[in-house]
Amino acid sequence: MNMNGAHPLLKVKNLTKKFGDHFAIKEANLEVMRGERVVLIGPSGSGKSTLLRCINYLEVPTSGTVWLDGEYIGGRYNDDGSWVKDSPSQLTKKRQHIGMVFQSFNLFAHLSALDNVTLGPRWVLNMPKKEAVEIAQQLLEKVHLEEHSHKLPAQLSGGQQQRVAIARALAMNPKLMLFDEPTSALDPRLTNEVLDVMLELAEEKMTMIVVTHEIGFAREVADVVFFLEEATIVESAPPALLFSDPKDERTRQFLVDCNILK
Amino acid sequence: MDLNFMIQILPRLLRASLTTIQVSLLSLLLGTLFGLLMGMIRVLGPRFLHPFVNAYVTFVRGTPVAVQIYAAFFLLPRIGLNWSLFEISVFALTFNSVGYQIEIIRAALQSIDKGQHEAAAAIGLGKWKAMWLITLPQAAQRMIPPLTNELANLIKASSVLSIIALYELTRAGEAIIASTFRYAEVLILMSILYFLMIQSLTEGSNYLEKNVFNFRTSRIKTRKIKQPAG
Amino acid sequence: MPLDLDFMIRIFPELFRALILTVQISFLALLFGIVLGILLGSLRVIGPRYIQIPIQWLVNYIRGTPQLVQFLIVYFALPRIGIVLNEYWTGVVALTVIAAGYEVEIVRAAIESIDKGQKEAALAVGMSEVKALRLVLLPQAMRRMIPALTNELSNVIKASALLSVIAVNELTKVGNKIIYETFYFFEVLIEVAVLYLIVIGVLGWISSYFENKVFAYGEAITATEVR
Question: How large is the ipTM?
Fold first, then answer.
C-alpha cells in the first residue's frame, strides 16, 4: 500500500466523552498511520488524557468510534444506526494490541520487575514461562534495567518503574503504544532516562501517541502534534510548523504562555 | 408460611422488642457516661490509672459477652445485690459496652486538632476545663457514628440475654418456637424486628448527627461561655 | 471469697478439652468463611449487579441481626432441608455463616483499597476482569486482609460461646455445666474467662503484629470488632 492510499492504523471518529454535563472531549477526530508518532499537547484539563484513555476503552466514550487496524474497539454503529457493543472478552482481546503507559506507572506492586513484564505474555498470550522470561529479559535490557529485574516496584526509582512499565507494555507486542503523561510524576533527571527510552522506540518506528508537556520531546520526535484546548482538538501540524507558525490564535497564545513563541 | 399465626404472635414479639430496646438504650446511655469518665481518664488522667483502664478494656474485649452475662447473673446476687433480671441485664450490657465505648471516646477526643488545645491553653484554660469546654463539644459530633454502631451492636448483643431468661425478643421467639414448633414464621419475624430496630435507630442517629450536632447548620444556640477572668 | 485452687486444677482438663473444641470449630469456620468470603467478595466487586445486590443483602442481614438468631436459623433450617449434622458440624456451619458475612466485607474492602491504576494496568495489558482480579488484585488484597482476618478469628471464637444454646460442648457450655453440677461458679467463671482471654489475647497480639508490620506496599485494612 502506498502512502496515499494507505488506511490508517488508528482512526478515531467523532469521539465524545461527557462526565455529567461536562465535556471532557468533544467530537474528536484523529488518524494515525502505521509508524507515525503523534504527540498531544495542551493545557491541563483540555481532554488529552481522556482522549487517550478512550482509545483503549479504559474510559468508555459517550459517543463516537475507535478503529484499530480496520477493527472497531468497544463498539460501533451498525448500518441501520444501532450501536453494536463488544462483549467484555472481545474488548479484552482487542486491548492486547494497544500498549499503555500511565502517569503513575501502575506497576503490579506484588511482582518483581521481571514478573511484571512476563505476566501479560504468560497469562494473556499463554506463552510458556521460559519463552516469556526470555522476551522479558530482552525488553528489560532494552530499557537498561537488566540488573534490576528481580526487584519489587517499591525498590525502584520512579524513572526505573516507568521504564519497566514501558517494557511491560512492549511485551504484548502491541501495534500501538499510548503514553499518558509518562514523565509528569518524575524529576528532570529521571524524566530524561524515560524520554531516552521513548526516543529509541520512536526511532524503531513504533506507532505511538504521547500525551506530554515535554515540548522538546515533541519537537524532536513527533511527526504530527495535536493541540487540544477545552475538550476540542484545535489544530494539528508537524512540530516544525505548529511550534513556529500556528494557525489558530488559541494555539499561539498557549505557545506564548509556554515561552515557546514570543 | 402461616400469616395468621404471624399476626397472632406479633404483639408478644413486639412487647419483647420493647424490652430489647429498653435494655440496649439504657446500656448505651450508662455506657456512655462511664465510658466518658474512663475515656477522659485514659486521655488526661494520671498515668498510674491507665493500666487499670486498659486491663478493663482487654477483659471486656477478650471474653465473649455470654460469659460476661453469666458472670453478672451468678456474681451479683452473691455479693448481696438482689437485682431483677432486667437490672442484671442492664448491668451486664453496660459493663460490656463501656469496654468498647472507652476506645470510641478516646479516639474522638484525640482526633480534635492540637491547635484547639493550644488555643485553649493560650487563653488560660486548665486541661480539664479545656476538655469540658473545648474538646468534648467538638468530639461529641464525631462520636455519634461510632456510638450508633455501638447501639446496633448492643441490640444484637442483647439477644444473648436470653441465656439468663430475660424475656426480650430472642427469648420470646424461643419460647414461642418451643411451644408451637413453628420456627420459620417466628425466626422470620424476629429477623425483621431486629432489622427494623437497628435500621430505625441508625437513621435516627444519622439525623441527629446531621441536624442537631452539626456546628454549621445547628439551630441550637451555642451556649455562652463566661469570659475567663483576667 | 477464697478461691478453691484445687478445684480449679481438677476441672482444668475438662475445660481445656472444651477450649480445644472451641478453637477447632472457630478455626474451621474461619477457613470455610475465607473461601466463601473470597468467592462472594470477588463477585460483590466484579460480578453483575443482579449478583452483587443479593450478596449485599445477605451481608447486611448477617451483620444486621443477632448471631443467636442466625444460629437458631441454621439449627432449625438444616434438618428441614435434609442436612442432618451432629452438633459439632452444625456449630461449624453456623459459625461459617457468620464468619463469611464479615469476611465478604473484609475481602471487598481489601480489593477496593487497591489503587485503581493496578486494575487499569491489568486491563491495558489485555487481561479480562477475572484475570485481573485473580492475578493482580487478589494477591495484593490478601496481604492486606491478614490482620483483619486474624482479628476475625477472635470474633468467631467469641461468637462460638453462643453455640452453647444449640448444644455444642464448647467452653461456655461446659463451664456452665460444671457450675450447675458443683455451684463453684466463681472459680469456673474465672477459669473460663482466663482461657478465652489467653486465646483472644494471643490472636490480638498476632493481629496487631501484622497491622504494625510495614508491608512492602500499601496499608493493611483495619479490622472490625464484634462481641
Answer: 0.84
pLDDT tens, position by position, B3-39: 899 999 999 999 999 999 999 999 999 999 999 999 9
pLDDT tens track for A51-62: 999 999 999 999
Structural contact between residues C90 and C166, judged by C-beta atoms closer than 8 angstroms: yes
Q: Which of C101, C103, C92, C91 is nearest to C34 (CA)?
A: C103
Nearest-neighbour CA in chain A from C149: distance (Å): 20
Torsion, Cα of B136, B142, B143, B147 (10° steps): 160
Bridge partners (DSSP) listed for residue A31? A11
Mutation target vs A (from C114, C125, C136, C143; most A CBs, 10 A cutoff):
C125
How far, CA to CA in Å, does A128 sit from each of A118, A120, A134, A138, C121? 10, 12, 10, 16, 22
Set of chain B residues whose Cβ sits within 8 Å of the Cβ of C61: 191, 195
Q: Supply the DSSP string of B83-129, one letter for each residue.
A: --HHHHHHHHHHHHHHHHHHHHHHHHHHTS-HHHHHHHHHTT--HHH
| Lookup result for grid cell 492540637 | B114
| Mutate: best of B103, B104, B191, partner C, most C CBs <10 A | B191
Question: Which chains have 3+ CB pairs within 8 A of A?
Answer: C
For C91, counting Cβ atoms within 10 Å of its Cβ (0-12 exposed, 13-18 middle, 19+ buried), the class is buried
Angle between helices C87-112 and C67-80 (to 10 degrees): 120
Chain C residues 142-161 with CB within 8 Å of chain A = 143
Of A95, A102, A168, the CB nearest to C117: A102
Q: Provide the β-strand partners of residue A11.
A: A31, A67
Is C65–B96 a contact, with Cβ atoms under 8 angstroms apart? no
Q: Are strands A83-85 and A75-77 parallel, antiparallel or unpaired?
A: antiparallel
Q: Which CATH architecture has domain B3-226?
A: Orthogonal Bundle (1.10)
What domains can you pick out in chain C, each with its CATH number?
A: 5-225 (1.10.3720.10)
The grid coordinates of residue C84 equal 442432618
How far apart CA B3 and CA A257 sit, in angstroms, is 76
pTM exceeds 0.90 for this model: no
> Using alpha carbons only, what angle is made at residue C189 by residues C188 and C195, rounded to the nearest 5 degrees?
90
- Are the C-beta atoms of residues B134 and B144 closer than 8 Å to each other? no
The position carrying cell 457450675 is: C179
Mean pLDDT of C49-55: 93
Break chain B into its structural domains and give their ranges.
Answer: 3-226
Q: Which three cell numbers stand for residue B93?
A: 450490657
CA distance B39 to A44: 49
Q: What does pLDDT average to over chain B?
A: 87
